[in-house]
Amino acid sequence: MTPKLHLQKLSVGTESVAGLAEWHALTRTQTPDGLPRHITRMWPKREAELLEGGSIFWVIKGELACRQRIMRFDEVIGSDGIRRCAFVLDPELIRVVPTLKRPFQGWRYLKPEDAPMDLPKGREAEEALPASLSAALAEIGIL
User: 118: domain range?
Assistant: First the structure.
Protein backbone atom coordinates (compact mmCIF):
# COMPACT_ATOMS: atom_id res chain seq x y z
CA MET A 1 0.00 0.00 0.00
CA THR A 2 1.37 3.39 -0.97
CA PRO A 3 1.02 5.73 2.00
CA LYS A 4 -1.01 8.89 1.52
CA LEU A 5 0.53 10.85 4.38
CA HIS A 6 3.12 10.64 7.19
CA LEU A 7 3.96 12.56 10.35
CA GLN A 8 7.28 13.89 11.59
CA LYS A 9 7.99 14.41 15.28
CA LEU A 10 10.97 15.40 17.40
CA SER A 11 12.12 12.67 19.76
CA VAL A 12 13.07 15.05 22.56
CA GLY A 13 15.92 13.86 24.76
CA THR A 14 16.71 10.86 22.57
CA GLU A 15 20.35 10.43 21.60
CA SER A 16 20.00 7.61 19.04
CA VAL A 17 17.63 5.16 17.36
CA ALA A 18 18.68 2.61 20.00
CA GLY A 19 17.65 5.09 22.71
CA LEU A 20 14.22 5.46 21.10
CA ALA A 21 13.89 1.65 21.06
CA GLU A 22 14.74 1.54 24.77
CA TRP A 23 12.10 4.21 25.48
CA HIS A 24 9.46 2.24 23.58
CA ALA A 25 10.35 -0.91 25.51
CA LEU A 26 9.25 0.69 28.78
CA THR A 27 5.87 -0.63 29.92
CA ARG A 28 4.63 2.86 30.78
CA THR A 29 5.02 3.94 27.14
CA GLN A 30 2.97 1.03 25.79
CA THR A 31 -0.69 0.34 25.14
CA PRO A 32 -2.43 -2.42 27.14
CA ASP A 33 -1.80 -4.73 24.16
CA GLY A 34 1.97 -4.05 24.37
CA LEU A 35 2.43 -1.71 21.40
CA PRO A 36 4.52 1.45 21.71
CA ARG A 37 2.59 4.70 21.76
CA HIS A 38 3.22 8.39 21.81
CA ILE A 39 0.62 10.57 23.53
CA THR A 40 0.00 14.06 22.24
CA ARG A 41 -2.50 16.83 22.90
CA MET A 42 -3.85 17.18 19.37
CA TRP A 43 -5.74 14.64 17.28
CA PRO A 44 -4.69 14.60 13.60
CA LYS A 45 -7.38 16.06 11.36
CA ARG A 46 -6.07 13.89 8.51
CA GLU A 47 -6.35 10.65 10.50
CA ALA A 48 -7.82 8.59 7.64
CA GLU A 49 -4.90 9.44 5.33
CA LEU A 50 -2.35 8.58 8.02
CA LEU A 51 -3.97 5.18 8.62
CA GLU A 52 -3.50 4.26 4.96
CA GLY A 53 0.09 3.08 5.46
CA GLY A 54 1.51 6.22 7.06
CA SER A 55 4.47 6.33 9.43
CA ILE A 56 5.79 8.66 12.07
CA PHE A 57 9.30 9.81 11.15
CA TRP A 58 11.39 10.55 14.24
CA VAL A 59 13.78 13.50 14.33
CA ILE A 60 16.73 12.58 16.55
CA LYS A 61 19.50 15.12 17.15
CA GLY A 62 18.45 17.24 14.17
CA GLU A 63 17.96 14.43 11.65
CA LEU A 64 15.04 12.34 10.45
CA ALA A 65 16.60 9.05 11.54
CA CYS A 66 13.93 6.36 11.58
CA ARG A 67 10.24 5.70 11.17
CA GLN A 68 7.49 3.56 12.67
CA ARG A 69 4.28 2.60 10.94
CA ILE A 70 1.17 4.11 12.51
CA MET A 71 -1.22 1.32 13.53
CA ARG A 72 -4.10 3.33 15.00
CA PHE A 73 -5.03 6.29 17.17
CA ASP A 74 -6.40 5.70 20.68
CA GLU A 75 -8.20 8.15 22.91
CA VAL A 76 -6.48 8.71 26.26
CA ILE A 77 -8.07 10.70 29.06
CA GLY A 78 -5.41 12.12 31.38
CA SER A 79 -5.65 12.39 35.16
CA ASP A 80 -6.61 16.02 34.50
CA GLY A 81 -9.67 14.88 32.52
CA ILE A 82 -8.31 16.19 29.21
CA ARG A 83 -8.75 14.07 26.07
CA ARG A 84 -5.51 13.28 24.28
CA CYS A 85 -4.46 11.22 21.27
CA ALA A 86 -2.14 8.20 21.50
CA PHE A 87 -0.31 7.40 18.27
CA VAL A 88 -0.13 3.60 18.46
CA LEU A 89 2.92 2.41 16.55
CA ASP A 90 4.38 -0.73 15.05
CA PRO A 91 7.27 -1.79 17.32
CA GLU A 92 9.68 -2.04 14.37
CA LEU A 93 11.94 0.99 14.00
CA ILE A 94 12.96 1.33 10.36
CA ARG A 95 16.14 3.33 9.78
CA VAL A 96 15.92 5.90 7.00
CA VAL A 97 18.51 7.86 5.07
CA PRO A 98 19.46 10.59 7.57
CA THR A 99 17.89 13.90 6.58
CA LEU A 100 18.57 17.19 8.35
CA LYS A 101 15.57 18.80 10.03
CA ARG A 102 15.32 22.04 11.96
CA PRO A 103 13.59 21.95 15.36
CA PHE A 104 9.83 22.52 15.46
CA GLN A 105 7.04 22.24 18.02
CA GLY A 106 4.58 19.35 18.12
CA TRP A 107 4.27 17.21 15.02
CA ARG A 108 3.98 18.04 11.34
CA TYR A 109 2.50 16.29 8.35
CA LEU A 110 5.01 14.89 5.86
CA LYS A 111 4.13 14.16 2.24
CA PRO A 112 5.34 10.75 1.00
CA GLU A 113 7.36 12.40 -1.76
CA ASP A 114 9.23 14.46 0.88
CA ALA A 115 9.95 11.50 3.18
CA PRO A 116 13.46 10.02 3.23
CA MET A 117 13.94 6.54 1.83
CA ASP A 118 14.48 3.54 4.07
CA LEU A 119 18.11 2.52 4.42
CA PRO A 120 18.94 -0.43 2.16
CA LYS A 121 18.97 -3.85 3.82
CA GLY A 122 22.24 -4.51 5.62
CA ARG A 123 22.91 -0.84 6.38
CA GLU A 124 20.46 -0.51 9.28
CA ALA A 125 23.11 -1.21 11.91
CA GLU A 126 25.66 1.27 10.55
CA GLU A 127 26.70 4.04 12.87
CA ALA A 128 25.30 7.44 12.00
CA LEU A 129 27.68 9.95 10.42
CA PRO A 130 28.93 12.74 12.66
CA ALA A 131 26.42 15.61 12.58
CA SER A 132 28.89 18.04 10.98
CA LEU A 133 29.70 15.63 8.14
CA SER A 134 26.03 14.76 7.63
CA ALA A 135 25.18 18.49 7.47
CA ALA A 136 27.95 19.18 4.95
CA LEU A 137 26.84 16.28 2.71
CA ALA A 138 23.22 17.37 2.91
CA GLU A 139 24.19 20.95 2.04
CA ILE A 140 25.80 19.86 -1.21
CA GLY A 141 22.97 17.45 -2.04
CA ILE A 142 24.74 14.12 -1.52
CA LEU A 143 22.78 13.00 1.52
Answer: 6-139
